[in-house]
Every structure is written in C-alpha cells, then in structure tokens.
Design a protein that fits this description.
Ubiquitin-like (UB roll), 5-stranded mixed beta sheet, alpha/beta, single chain, 8 helices, 234 residues, 5-stranded parallel beta sheet, elongated, 34% helix, Rossmann fold
Length: 234
C-alpha cells in the first residue's frame, strides 16, 4: 500500500534523495499491505529512539497503529533544546470591526494563558494585551511603537494562537509576520474560507473548546509542540 510521509526536524536527514519536493514536503512511500509507522521508520533507516511522536491524518497515534492506503503519516523527533521553553504568541481580536475607541472582550487571553500554563508548565507567553493593559490611553507615538513592536514579536514565537471570532486586521498582520518567520500557527475562527487564514495557518479550529480538547487529550503536547519547534528549525 502507499502512504504519504512527512518528516520533521532532524528526521528529514532520512528523507529519500529521490523523493520530489522540498525537505519539508510529504512524499509517497510504498509499504506492505499490513503496516504501521514502525515499517516507515525501518524503511527509512531511522533510529526508532529518534521518533517521539506520530500523527496519522493529523490525529495523534501510536507507533503500532495500523495504517491504511492513502494515510498521511507525520513523524516527529524529540523536542529540540530539552527543557527550553515553548514561546507562544497570543493573538486575537482587540478592535475587530468596531468604529469607536473601545475593545472587544479580552477574557479569551486569560483562558488561553491558564490552559497553556496548566498543560505546558515552562511555557513562555507573549501577550500584547498583558504587556500593554493601558494601551487605550497611549499617545500616538506610544501606540505606533507598541503596534509595530508587538507585530514584529509574532515572528519570534514558536507558536502563534490566533483567536478570531471576528475579523481583525491587526491579527492578520501578526499571522503574516509569524508565517514569514516560520512560526507555527493555530487559528481559532469560523472564517475557514478566508485566504488570510487558509494560507497561513497550520490548523484551523472552530472554537477554543476544540483547542482545549487537544490539550486535555495530549495531542497538543505530543504533536503540535514538536511540530512547532521543528518548523522553527527548518
């Protein structure tokens, strides 16, 4: 049977030389009719100690999970840097489509911060609102400096989480900056057809509950974190 394989980080050294595309692209691999990720590891000559997480069709799986024709299999190496903290940029609606000088509720930032700290104890958060709680009273020069500085910081993170229940020009700029800097992006939004979301985000989720569900079932820690750190190294 044939499956598509995508390697992350140091595992890309085992990508077949004849496989078309760039190192970060998926490639087709022929396996026995009854096979698991172990067969992929053996076929590519990868030391099994170097594979710490597996995803099949974007769902966390085990090494011995049976594969099916056409499956998309991702293999992840150990998290680089060991105890090095994951840097997460919290992006999302502030002014949205308002025509006054007020902001939308920022409570989602606290919910995200609490969930991230609970599931990833050494996480390092970059939150524009937490760093600038009095931004509504900033002078023109302060506001300009803050806007440009915080937008640039999006590309310094390993992962950007964009909460977009409403359109947000500022968040779109942060997502583009992050995309340009090889930052992994999760968009939480109903706007799945918007190009600014579709072509920058690695994952699009409908609501925060879905994201928190990933944290509870371990997918976030086992798949997303290694993938985010591997992308930064690519």
């Amino acid at each position: 049977m044939k499956v598509d394989v995508k390697l992350y980080g140091a595992l890309r050294a085992n990508r077949p030389a004849e496989a078309p595309g760039m190192p970060h692209h998926a490639f087709e691999l022929t396996l026995p009719e009854v096979a698991t990720a172990v067969h992929i590891i053996q076929a590519l000559g990868i030391d099994d100690a170097l594979v710490t997480a597996v995803a099949i069709n974007s769902e966390t799986a085990e090494l011995d999970t049976p594969l099916k024709e056409g499956d998309q299999v991702s293999l992840f190496p150990p998290v680089a840097g060991g105890s090095e903290p994951l840097r997460v940029f919290i992006a999302g609606v502030m002014q949205a489509n308002r025509q006054d000088t007020q902001l939308e509720s920022q409570d989602y930032r606290l919910l995200l911060s609490q969930a991230l700290r609970r599931h990833i104890p050494n996480v390092q958060l970059i939150d524009p609102w937490a760093e600038n709680p009095n931004s509504l009273s900033y002078t023109e020069e302060q506001a300009r400096h803050t806007f440009l500085t915080m937008t640039n910081k999006a590309s310094e993170a390993d992962l950007l989480i964009a909460y977009l229940p409403l359109p947000s020009m500022g968040t779109a700029m942060e997502m583009w900056q992050a995309y340009q800097g090889n930052t992994y992006i999760i968009a939480v939004t109903p706007y799945v057809h918007h190009w600014a979301v579709r072509f920058t985000a690695n994952h699009i989720l409908p609501d925060l509950e879905s994201l928190f569900g990933w944290m509870e079932n371990g997918r976030f820690q086992q798949e997303i974190v290694p993938a985010a750190l591997a992308l930064r190294q690519s």
